[in-house]
Amino acid sequence: MVLATLHTNDAAGAITRLEEMGVELFNIGAAVIGILAQRLVRRVCKDCAQPTNADPEVLRRLGVTEEELKGATLMRGAGCPRCAGTGYRGRTGIHELLVIDDTIRRAINSGKTSTDIKDIAIEHGEMWTLRRDGVHKALQGITTLEEILAVTSQ
Questions:
Q1: 120-141 burial string, b = 16+ CB within 10 Å, else e?
Q2: What are the residues whose beta carbons fall under 8 Å from the beta carbon of 78, sequence distance 6 or more?
Q3: pTM for the whole thing?
Q4: How far from chain centre, in Å, is Cα 32?
Q5: Cα separation of 138 and 116, whole Å?
Q6: Contact between 126 and 99 (Cβ < 8 Å)
Q7: pLDDT tens-digit series, residues 105-151
Q8: CA distances (Å), origin 64, targets 82, 113, 136
Q9: pLDDT digits (tens, 9 = 90+) for 83-107
Q10: Which of 71, 65, 58, 2 is nearest to 35 (CA)?
């Protein structure tokens, strides 16, 4: 088993990066079993965290529905000496995992773009994006929706 690091914007982008490096598509499809993308986001400071309401514009830009907000615990740090007044203290990861199944393998072998491959994986319900994982963590009060908007792209 070989683990490697590539700099890409998302998991599906690693396929394009490997192709740019000269790896044939059939070899990518045959050899790769999964790709994990990760980003660090700031955690809400536990010492000054307080419940907050979501900004409607941020909700719209992230695609968060009213249904998703039900039962959510949105938090924001007020700022304290422990977090140097920022409202954030520490970091946590957000992740997306692209598992290379037969459907994705066929898409790779047929030369689909990374965007197409990502869309196929999402359609089949087999992949949460970095943004989805981040929104999930924001709804749990671990980070903020604004932080997720700042560090992820659609």
A1: bbbeeeebbbbbbbbbebbbeb
A2: 48, 49, 50, 87
A3: 0.87
A4: 20
A5: 27
A6: yes
A7: 999 999 999 999 999 999 988 788 999 999 999 999 999 999 999 99
A8: 31, 27, 10
A9: 999 999 999 999 999 999 999 999 9
A10: 2
Rounded Cα gap, residues 74 and 71, in angstroms: 10
Question: What token pair was written down for 127?
Answer: 């992949």
Residue 139's φ and ψ, nearest 5 degrees, are -70, -20
pLDDT at 154: 67
> Tokens representing 61?
């830009």
Q: Which two tokens stand for residue 86?
A: 């920022």
Q: If we measure between CA atoms, which residue out of 153, 18, 42 comes closest to residue 96?
A: 153
Token couple for 35: 């790709």
39: nearest Cα among 132, 139, 122: 132
